[in-house]
Amino acid sequence: MPIAASTTTSSRLLSLLSMLQARRDWPGGLLAERLGVSERTVRRDVDRLRELGYPVHAVKGPDGGYRLEAGSQMPPLLFDEEQAVALTVALRIAVGTGAGIEEAAARALATVRQVLPSRLRQRVDALEVAAAGRAADPQVDTGVLLTLSAAVRAGEELRFDYRSPGRPEDAEPGPPRRVQPHHLVVRGGRWYVVGWDPDRDDWRTYRADRMTPRVPNGPRFGPREVPGGDVAAFLSARFKGSESADTWPCRGEVILGLPAAEVAPFAGDGVVEALGPARTRLTSGAWSWAALAAGLARFDAEIEVIGPPELRAAFAELSRRAARAAGAR
């Protein structure tokens, strides 16, 4: 009987801990109802959790209740099955984030995997996750990421030094920059700060690995919405050279003397339409007309320009440059 009672108590403690982790405030009566015990038993179980290092605080009010607060040290955590699987997947793909946490993520993954039930361990082991390429180099210092994230969360202006591309490492830093950071975004293994530049009265994007924050932060600022309202689409548009919509600023249409099956794998986000066994209509875009013409010229085939005239002119200029390059030899 003592063994059975002890097992029941341990199971109830785990259930209580799981509920406290899932919700901020719990009325004592509701906890007692969910656990099928008296409120006095709930109070004793809360005391046992406190002895184990969990900072459970009593909440004052008409109903009374409990809240699991942050403590001075990390107590054991309790995850349900979906959370455990999600955690292991996240740790496996952490190598591609460029945040410099690969070693810590590997150790955390080994710790979590060791305590997983056999059936869950088999599920996560069967999931093969491979990073496409390697993490960005150089990576962002974890402390810098935390500082940037804290400024975004607090709505405080950032003061920072910025290493522009091609600038020597030992060059004297220029005057500090400032930006009102609204988003910290990871894209292609690199971290970017998207913020409002009060000096230029416009949105700016900075690579986090080139930023060295200065302390203290500047004044607080009010929230703004990026153009279009979607930060991922906004960042993608800026990388395409567009000021607003997530589309290439230069788009053209050609007919290639190739089968559509040979064009599609290399068309990127272009639109491919088969016109015959060896004729394909391709609508594509780039950040400039010269870049679009050069990108289309990589197809080893005859090219018929449908439009616009700017694309036809870019091909003409490209052919003149190619002729000069060939004649120079």
Describe this structure in words.
With 329 residues, this protein is of the alpha+beta class. It has 4 domains: 2-68, Arc Repressor Mutant, subunit A; 81-126, no CATH class; 142-165 and 175-239, SH3 type barrels; 250-327, Alpha-Beta Plaits. Helices cover 40% and strands 21% of the residues. It has 11 helices and 12 strands. 18% of the residues are buried. Keywords: DNA-binding, Transcription, Transcription regulation. It holds the Pfam family HTH_11. Residues 9-68 form the HTH deoR-type domain. Residues 161-170 have a biased composition (Basic and acidic residues).
Concise description?
The chain has 329 residues and is an alpha+beta fold. The chain has helices at residues 2-22, 28-35, 39-51, 81-93, 102-115, 118-126, 142-154, 231-239, 260-263, 289-297, 309-327, and strands at residues 25-26, 56-59, 65-68, 158-162, 177-187, 190-197, 202-207, 211-214, 250-256, 271-276, 279-286, 303-307.
Features:
single chain, 329 residues, alpha+beta, Arc Repressor Mutant, subunit A, SH3 type barrels, 4 domains, five-stranded antiparallel sheet, four-stranded antiparallel sheet, 11 helices, elongated
